């Protein structure tokens, strides 16, 4: 038995043990109280902490009933004897104000959006009780034309919230460094290479950017983030020996898109071009669906 002293921190007044995997306050809270206890927008468990949106802010005191301050939980380390408060009137007002400011530059047309009912921004806004915002200027879109030049990817920057997740996924996960953030303030936007069209860039079509995007600012031709499917089936990619875990969206008995679960050990929510987009053979009419043996010049099913 280990002789090390257990380290305890407090969440909303209750003690919890700080474990070796609790590298941040957010991970500490999620491990005990679930994914939805603290809202997030710029956080992705497969990316390094970033702290851009501040929606995950919590209050932290170093002693009981002592002075507290508001910190971003995604990149603030959890330490022994911290007293963490996840929800109160001040935090709720702060989160609502942040999300309302995000929505000032985001079209309020959820019902016609590709990711309606599967949008992280929509979920956070609904959880905070936001149906409209108090800030009417500037206009609610940037007027950036939709980029459909890519064979697989689609970019609709009118719906971008500048969380930076796509840039970080391209850098940290795929290592392609295709995407970057250009401009300042309300002129900030995602660009590809030297401000090229998506289809002319050095993108390798891995889909990591679309997978992590919390809205439909970056998506794909298969609408893989759409909630318009009958069921999802967990499966293993059949292309190579890595064994990437996939989720196939099924509609009317056919595979319509492929997604990658974020919590998987093998591929950590990532896969290649083939695994994500080359799934047309699944339902192809010429696909072999049972073993065959050749007798007298003709193939016969053997099982």
Which descriptor suits the 3D outline? globular
Distance between the amino and carboxyl termini: 54 Å
Low-confidence stretches: none
At CATH level 2, the architecture of the largest domain is 2-Layer Sandwich
List keywords for this structure.
303 residues, single chain, 5-stranded mixed beta sheet, N-terminal domain of TfIIb, Alpha-Beta Plaits, 3-stranded antiparallel beta sheet
Description:
The chain is α+β, with helices and mostly antiparallel strands and 303 residues long. It has three domains: 8-87, Ubiquitin-like (UB roll), CATH 3.10.20; 102-220, Alpha-Beta Plaits (2-Layer Sandwich); 231-283, ADC-like domains (N-terminal domain of TfIIb). The protein has helices spanning 25-33, 89-103, 120-127, 165-174, 208-212, 273-277; strands spanning 8-11, 14-17, 57-61, 68-72, 83-85, 153-155, 179-182, 189-192, 218-220, 231-236, 245-251, 254-259, 292-295, 298-301. It starts with 7 loop residues before the first strand and ends with a strand.
Strand and helix map with partners:
Elements: E1 8-11, E2 14-17, H1 25-33, E3 57-61, E4 68-72, E5 83-85, H2 89-103, H3 120-127, E6 153-155, H4 165-174, E7 179-182, E8 189-192, H5 208-212, E9 218-220, E10 231-236, E11 245-251, E12 254-259, H6 273-277, E13 292-295, E14 298-301
Parallel strand pairs: 1-5
Antiparallel strand pairs: 1-2, 3-4, 3-5, 6-9, 7-8, 10-11, 11-12, 13-14
């Amino acid at each position: 038995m280990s002789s090390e002293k257990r380290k305890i921190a407090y969440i909303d007044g209750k003690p919890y043990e700080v474990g070796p995997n609790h590298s941040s306050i957010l991970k500490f809270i999620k491990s005990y109280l679930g994914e939805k206890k603290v809202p997030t927008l710029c956080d992705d468990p497969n990316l390094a902490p970033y702290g851009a949106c501040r929606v995950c802010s919590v209050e932290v005191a170093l002693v009981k009933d002592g002075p507290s301050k508001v910190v971003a939980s995604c990149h603030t380390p959890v330490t022994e004897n911290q007293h963490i408060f996840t929800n109160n009137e001040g935090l709720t007002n702060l989160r609502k104000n942040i999300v309302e400011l995000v929505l000032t530059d985001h079209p309020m047309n959820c019902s016609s959006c590709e990711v309606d009912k599967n949008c992280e921004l929509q979920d956070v806004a609904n959880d905070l009780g936001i149906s409209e915002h108090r800030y009417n200027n500037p206009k609610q879109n940037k007027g950036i034309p939709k980029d459909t030049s890519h064979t697989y990817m689609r970019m609709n920057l009118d719906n971008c919230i500048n969380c930076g997740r796509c840039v970080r996924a391209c850098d940290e996960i795929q290592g392609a460094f295709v995407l970057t953030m250009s401009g300042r303030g309300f002129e900030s936007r995602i660009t590809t290479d030297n401000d090229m069209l998506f289809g002319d860039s050095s993108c390798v079509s891995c889909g990591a950017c679309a997978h992590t995007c919390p809205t439909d600012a970056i998506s794909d031709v298969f609408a893989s983030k759409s909630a318009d499917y009958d069921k999802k089936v967990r499966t293993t990619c059949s292309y190579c020996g890595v064994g990437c875990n996939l989720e196939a969206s099924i509609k009317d008995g056919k595979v319509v898109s492929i997604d990658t679960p974020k919590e998987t050990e093998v591929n950590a929510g990532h896969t290649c071009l083939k695994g994500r987009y080359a799934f047309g053979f699944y339902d192809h009419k010429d696909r072999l669906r049972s073993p065959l043996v050749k007798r007298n010049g003709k193939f016969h099913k053997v099982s």
